[in-house]
Each structure stands twice: as structure tokens, then as C-alpha cells.
Design brief:
2 copies of one chain form a homodimer. With about 425 residues, chain A is α/β, with parallel strands linked by helices. The first copy, chain A, folds into 2 domains: about 5-45 and about 305-410, Aspartate Aminotransferase, domain 1 (Alpha-Beta Complex); about 70-305, Type I PLP-dependent aspartate aminotransferase-like (Major domain) (Aspartate Aminotransferase, domain 2, 3-Layer(aba) Sandwich), CATH 3.40.640.10. Chain A is about 40% helix and about 10% strand. Chain A has a 7-stranded mixed β-sheet with strand order 2-8-7-6-5-3-4, sandwiched between helices. The first copy, chain A, is globular. Chains A and B meet through α2, α3, α5, α6 and α11 of A and α2, α3, α5, α6 and α11 of B.
Chain lengths: ~425, ~425
């Protein structure tokens, strides 16, 4: 049987130990192939009910009294992420704000902790919002922002980081999984290299948390942030999480002093006194309804288990690449992700000079949802928790048929506001 | 008929032009008297349905494609707040982050805009989280935080601000309505005084927006932030809003540079280029589900109209004070809010040495929900949109009966985590 035979996908699905988890999510529209779980995770079946209960019972009827239930949500969901998603201890992860605000808080705290050093190190494959935060901090503080040039298809190498590190570096910050290529950076090796010169590390786990193991403990990683609306299925724009290694917490201070980070929050005293532990990294009132969604998503991910998700993620993306090699390379596509499954997260990206129009046509005419990333990349994210091998076969078969039909050529080359 | 006669309340309710709005909110538990709408506004009847639709249809079925609807929510809800809640223009208000994060962004932007000035001016009656933000900024930048001593019952006076202002002041920031007493600061006069010395102003509208007119335009106010989960009924921890006067927007830069504040967000270019207008004050992905709640709350407030809400707020709080004078003053209570209705927002605070235990007993034994504020204050917030005169009568009658029974004396004096 050829790899490209649909029966192969069906056989793989029958053997998939995570297959039953697809029933734990709202069924998609019939015929839709969703390959963008790396951008917005699907809706867990329990979430709508939990949210309705939170809205009507907790807010509507419990009113202000429900704060007794809500006041520790940031900490308790953080602990669930630490235990079920990351390799971290209770009290090392907390949910708050957006990923970018958290990145700002932790980067500023790290720079304050290394006041005699003048360099913030990152790479040009980091997510743009991360890069913008660093540009802002470097400009405000007169620091050097040192930017490693990374191969956008193969990802950041530990050797390149090592070459760029010196004792002027206060903080080195990178994405664990690259948002374009899905390339995995070696979190353990790079953290060690930074520590060798006395620098702190700040990892963005947005594209890794919930899809691959995140070895924070093995690495002795210092700081991290991550997103809950991708692989953690927390809902659109759901609050992000941050991690600070326990022994660093007492010595670090973030710059946005607010009442949720105050030791005696309702004492309403005049003088700010940073709360012990991770609570000092909180700022204002968290968006409770969006937090409820995070809790549901994290629970289903944790139940499936990161090791099982990783195994399936490797198998799914390898299968996708096999199909792309057979069907799409002859049509002008080229792999823009590492070919080695060990170096790749749970999404795969393909170059094509017409990627933008192909992306639009695929969504509108073929009911397949990938996304586009500049300048010429089609990103395919078969999230392991919710995607079948048959979805991958179907998505790539339709993509092949689209290209053969030339239907994308009637689409405008002008990009829309959201890609 | 005596003021304290319940029939007076019933008569006032019959004449209340906003009476029908109570049907626009989820009915409370039978017997509950909710006097904490200034802390967490009640649930609009439409919100649960809109949220369920957003969860199931937009997130669950629309998935990533729904970002076409969500991408402008911050701006469009901001415009609804500008038009229906504040005295501001389209493009001057935007929804994002928490009140405290917004305060940090705007205060930092203001200090950057007055780099030759060394003083940040506030008062000791400002909300603690605001004060913490200013302490953090002053510490980070080596600025003087100048704190006016305010009478906590009568509120900030324009004369005291004028006396504290000089040409060293970069930014003067106060609450429009004091969180403890409900005292209104003279936004127009104080803004003018600050402008006279070349300082910028930053108003916290959390306890005024949605309950009293906010004369930003008349004042020529510079900057403001506000909360959506109190009088705007947006839901627990719903995202906050910020205001920047149009002519200031182009010259101001906030410190947290993120992709939602970038000119070409999905261009994913390497260099941060602040978006035009208010969009540059955004940072990361907004919590969409919580935003949906804000939109519903703002719409019902705007439909009722701020002038009508103000009229009823004055009448309700005056009625409450009349009952307190008759029933509670003899029992050891003392008014901790301005007696003049023109100087008072929509909540009233009473001193009592046993306020904490009274608050707990009132909630647990008498089904009346006020809140406690340190050190000895019982805060009663009869939000005009959702509270009847009969609610006020009932709440104060039960409070009187509680004190007479002495039931609160069996409660612990130790305060709980959330007050």
C-alpha cells in the first residue's frame, strides 16, 4: 500500500491511542479540516457548560461572594499547568495577563536582576511580539539588543547562542518552538550555555506547552511565559501563564506593581509590599470567564498526557511531510520545517511563492484551515489532541487538488488584516 | 408618611423611570439584597446567550476564522464606551488589559512625555493599586511621588491639588470617584489646575464610569483608565478601558511594545512601529470571551443613559442616607461619604467600629451584600441600574435589625482573604 493511500490514514487512526480524545471536543462543521490548532485550539466539550455555570451561577447569582472561588484561580490553574503540561513544581507557574505583558514583566525583572550587564540577547526567528517587547526595553534602558540570525526553516542552534553569549548578557530569550517553522530550540543546552556566562534565560513556550515536553526542571530554566489558547485550548485570547523557578522568586521584582501582587491585598494599605512567591508577578483583576476556559483546556491536555501528545505529534507531522513530499513538492512546495521529527514541534510549514492566495482559497473553496506566515509560508498545525491522520490526508489531498485546479490564482494578492 | 415607612420606597419605585431596567438583568435569588454593584455589577440578561454563542459558534465552529470578527473588538467596544458612557470621541477609548496594567502604560507614557519633570502627584485616597503602580514607577525612575493627604470621608479638594502642583509635576493622577467614600473629585477644575503648570492628568474612572457623567471633553482631560466590571456590568475581571485625548495620541508611546500595538500586526516584521491612534496602546491578544461580556454591559448602560443613571444614583443614595440618619446613627454608625449629593457618586459608606463583623453577618444571616473597606467602613453600593428603593429600604432595615440583635458579635474579628 502506498503512503499516499487513504487507507494508511485510516489504519493509523485505528491504532491511535488518543483517538477517543477527539470526542472530547465540539464536533467541527461536517467536511471542515482544521489544521490551525497551533494558532487557536479547538473547544473542549465541557467548556461551554462550565462557562455557562460560571456566568449564571457564580457571577449572576453568587455575585461578589464568588470571589472566594475566583481569588486563587491564577495560582490553582498555574499549578495544574505545572503538573500536567510543563516540567515544573507547584507554585512555579501562575496564570495572568497576556503572553506579551508577562514577557515584559519577566524580562524587566531579569534586567533589574543583572543591573551591571548591558545586553539582551534574542534571535530574529523569535515571535515578533517578543522582539517588540525587547526593543522597547532596550530603548527605555539604553541596552544593546543583540539579535542572532537564525535559519528560519531549521531554527535556532545552541552553537549560535553560545557564540553570541558573553558576560555582558543579562538575559537570553528565545522561543522554545519557532512560530514559523516549528523548529525546537534545545532548551536544556541553551539554558546551560547562558548560565555558563551568568545570564538569565526567558523562554517563550507558546508553541511548545501542551504539544511537546518542556524540560524546565532538567534545564534549571529561570523564567518562561506561554500561551493558553493554542495547544492548551483555553479559548480566544485566554490569559497566559508565566513561570519563575522557585529559588529566583524572592529576589525578583516585576515592574507593574498592582493590588493582586500585594502581600495583603485587601488590607488596602498605602505601601506596596510584594507578595511572597509567584503572586508578586500578578498585577490586576484577572478576566475570570476567560480563566474558566483555560482550566478546562488544561485539564483535557493533562489527562491525555504530554508524552502521548508528543508521540502523536511526531507521527502526524511525519505523515504530513511524507504526503507533502509525494504530492506537493512536484507542485512547487518546499519544506520550511526541520525534517528530523526530534527537532520539530507539532506543526509543519511549507514554502510556496503563492502561499497567501493558496491559504485563502484553501479556506474558502476547500474548507481546509491552515494559516499563512510571511513572506511565503503555509503553516499546517495538526494539533495532536484533536486531529486525525485522515484529517491530514484529507487536508493535503485538497491542497493538492487546489493547486492542480489553479483556483487560487483568482484570489487577490493583497493580504487581509488578520492572517 | 415618615421617610422610614416602606411605602415611601414603593412610591419612589413606581415613579422610577429606570425601573424597567431591573428586568434586563438576571433575577437575584429571592430575598437577596445586593448593595455591591459598585464592586461587581450584575449580570445582564443578554450576556449568557451572547457568550454561549461566542463560545459555540464563533470559537467552536468558526475557530481561527472568527478573528475577522474579534480583531477590532477593543476599538469598537471602546467607541461604544466613548459614546454612551463617557464624554469622549470615537477613537479616544479602547478596551484592553486590566485597569492596573492600563494605568501603568499611561502613567509611564506621561512621564516619558515630561522627561524634565521629577514629580508624580497623587493622593492617599487613591485606589491602592493605583498608588502601587506610582510607587513602582517612582522607584524605577528615581522620581518623587508626592502624596496629598485627603479627608477620607469628604474626598479630594481642588484647592489641595492646586497647592501641591508646581512646575516639577509631570503627572497628576487621581480617582474621579473615591473608592471608599464615593466622593467626587472636580475633574474639570483639577485638570485645569494641572494644565496651568504644564502637568498631564490621568484619571481613574473605575467608580465613576457608568454611574455619573465624566466630563473628559469639557475638562480637556489628557488620560484616563476605567473598570468595566463595576457599573458597566461586564463580568468578573473583565478587561478595562483607557482613554487618550486625540491630539496626544501621536506623541505618546507606552512602554509595553506588543504585536497588537504594531502598525502592520500580521506583517510580522522585525522592527516595532507603533500603530497610529489609540491602537498603539494595545499590547497582546485580548481575552475575547470576557470582552463579549463588556460589550453587553456597556450597551445596557448606554441605553439607560448616564443622565438618568446619575439622577437615580443621587436619589437612591440620598434616600439611603435619610434611612441611615433615622435608623443607624442612633446605633453607632456615622456617615463616611459627602452629605451633599452633588459631591457623591453612587455609593455610600458608613463608619462603624465593628464594620467587618457587621459586614459578614449581614451577608450570611440577613442576605444583604455590602462590602467592607478598611479600617472601619461598611460600603453600600445601590447601583442605579439594578437597585430599587425597596432594596435600599430592605437592606437598611435588615442592617438595623442585625445591630439590634447583636448577632454580628458572634463573628470572628479576623478578616477573610477577600473583603
Amino acid at each position: 500500500m502506498a503512503t499516499t493511500d487513504r487507507a494508511v490514514a485510516e489504519e493509523l487512526d485505528r491504532a491511535d491511542p488518543l483517538a477517543a480524545y477527539r470526542e472530547r471536543f465540539l464536533a467541527p462543521e461536517p467536511g471542515l479540516v482544521y489544521l490551525d490548532g497551533n494558532s487557536l485550539g479547538r473547544l473542549p466539550a465541557t467548556t461551554a457548560g462550565r462557562l455557562a455555570e460560571a456566568v449564571t451561577e457564580q457571577w449572576g447569582r453568587g455575585l461578589i461572594r464568588s470571589w472566594e472561588h475566583w481569588i486563587e484561580l491564577s495560582q490553582s490553574i498555574g499549578d495544574e499547568i505545572a503538573a500536567g503540561v510543563l516540567e515544573a513544581e507547584p507554585g512555579e507557574v501562575i496564570v495572568s495577563d497576556s503572553t506579551t505583558v508577562n514577557l515584559y514583566k519577566l524580562a524587566a525583572a531579569a534586567l533589574d536582576a543583572r543591573p551591571d550587564r548591558r545586553v539582551l540577547l534574542t534571535d530574529d526567528d523569535n515571535f515578533p511580539s517578543d522582539s517588540y517587547v525587547f526593543q522597547g526595553l532596550a530603548a527605555a534602558r539604553g541596552l544593546e539588543l543583540r539579535v542572532i540570525e537564525t535559519d528560519l526553516d531549521e531554527g535556532l542552534s545552541a552553537a549560535a547562542v553560545r557564540a553570541a553569549l558573553d558576560e555582558d548578557v543579562a538575559l537570553a530569550s528565545f522561543s522554545h518552538v519557532a512560530y514559523r517553522s516549528g523548529a525546537i530550540a534545545d532548551l536544556v543546552d541553551i539554558t546551560g550555555a547562558a548560565h555558563d556566562v551568568g545570564a538569565l534565560t526567558l523562554w517563550d513556550l507558546s508553541h511548545s506547552g501542551g504539544s511537546i515536553p518542556v524540560p524546565l526542571r532538567s534545564a534549571g530554566a529561570d523564567l518562561a511565559v506561554g500561551c493558553t489558547y493554542k495547544y492548551l485550548c483555553g479559548g480566544p485570547g485566554a490569559p497566559a501563564y508565566l513561570y519563575v523557578r522557585r529559588d529566583l522568586q524572592a529576589q525578583m521584582r516585576q515592574p507593574i506593581w498592582g493590588w493582586f501582587g500585594q502581600r495583603d491585598q485587601f488590607g488596602m494599605v498605602g505601601r506596596y509590599d510584594a507578595a511572597p512567591g509567584l503572586t508578586r508577578f500578578l498585577v490586576g483583576t484577572p478576566p475570570v470567564l476567560s480563566m474558566i476556559g483555560v482550566r478546562e483546556g488544561v485539564r483535557v491536555v493533562a489527562e491525555a498526557g504530554i508524552e502521548a501528545l508528543r508521540a502523536k505529534g511526531q507521527a502526524l507531522t511525519s505523515y504530513l511531510i511524507d504526503l507533502a513530499d509525494a504530492w506537493l513538492t512536484p507542485l512547487g512546495f518546499r519544506l520550511a520545517s526541520p525534517r528530523d521529527a526530534c527537532r520539530r514541534g507539532s506543526h509543519v510549514t511549507l514554502h510556496h511563492p503563492d502561499a497567501w492566495r493558496i491559504c485563502r482559497a484553501l479556506i474558502e473553496r476547500y474548507d481546509v484551515v491552515p494559516d499563512f506566515r510571511t513572506p511565503d509560508r503555509l503553516r499546517l498545525g495538526p494539533a495532536p489532541l484533536t486531529t486525525s491522520y485522515a484529517d491530514v490526508w484529507e487536508g493535503l489531498d485538497r491542497l493538492r487538488r487546489l493547486i492542480e485546479s489553479g483556483a487560487h490564482e483568482s484570489y487577490p494578492t493583497q493580504r487581509s488584516r488578520v492572517t
